[in-house]
Design brief:
By secondary structure, this protein is an alpha/beta fold. It is 34% helix and 15% strand. The chain has a single domain, classed as Peptidoglycan recognition protein-like (Lysozyme-like).
Length: 176
């Protein structure tokens, strides 16, 4: 764990959503650690997420029970934020490249664990579902569309939600 400088400590909170972001970086090994280290600096901007993932690893930056500053209110209060090495402008071809697929597998494994730990259905939720308080995983842009308070549109219009959902569900199936 590389503890982010900015977050709010909590003893207990209801977690309904997992919010997926892109770090607006290349998708390569080492990015998750670099971003996590930058959030730990005394000069870091007021931003954080619970986890940063790249093709090689996921780094925890904020404990799950604490509130990270990743998507505004009320999203922050009831979610776990996951930052992916990548860009909102990625195309279908970009998301299909080996590094991005490796990172999605790493993130899907984490999301499967989080869904199990917090009793979250492993399904994508759009802005309408968020407003209806339906749990699942979602993107920063969906949070923006549901409640405003941010201009971010990540993880982007071409993020492979259907494939990511399949990967998460596959990770949740116990081995035979």
């Amino acid at each position: 764990m590389i503890l982010a400088r900015h977050f709010k400590r909590c003893d207990k909170r209801e977690i309904r959503w997992i919010v997926i972001h892109t770090m607006e970086t290349p998708c390569q090994k080492g990015i998750a650690r670099a971003v996590a280290n930058s959030w730990a600096l005394p000069t870091s901007r007021v931003a954080s997420a619970h986890f940063c993932c790249d093709p090689g690893e996921c780094i925890m930056c904020v404990r799950e029970q604490d509130i990270a500053y990743h998507c505004g209110s009320p999203g922050n209060d009831h979610s776990i934020g996951i930052e992916l090495a990548g860009r909102a402008a990625f195309t279908d071809d970009d998301w299909g490249k080996p590094a991005q697929q490796a990172m999605l597998r790493v993130a899907a494994s984490l999301v499967a664990q989080l869904c199990g730990a917090h009793n979250i259905e492993p399904a994508y939720r759009d802005a309408a579902a968020l407003k209806a308080n339906v749990g699942g995983f979602t993107g920063h842009n969906d949070v923006r569309l549901a409640w405003g308070g941010t201009t971010h549109t990540d993880p982007g219009a071409r993020f492979p939600w259907a494939r990511f959902c399949e990967m998460v569900v596959a990770e949740m199936v116990p081995p035979e």
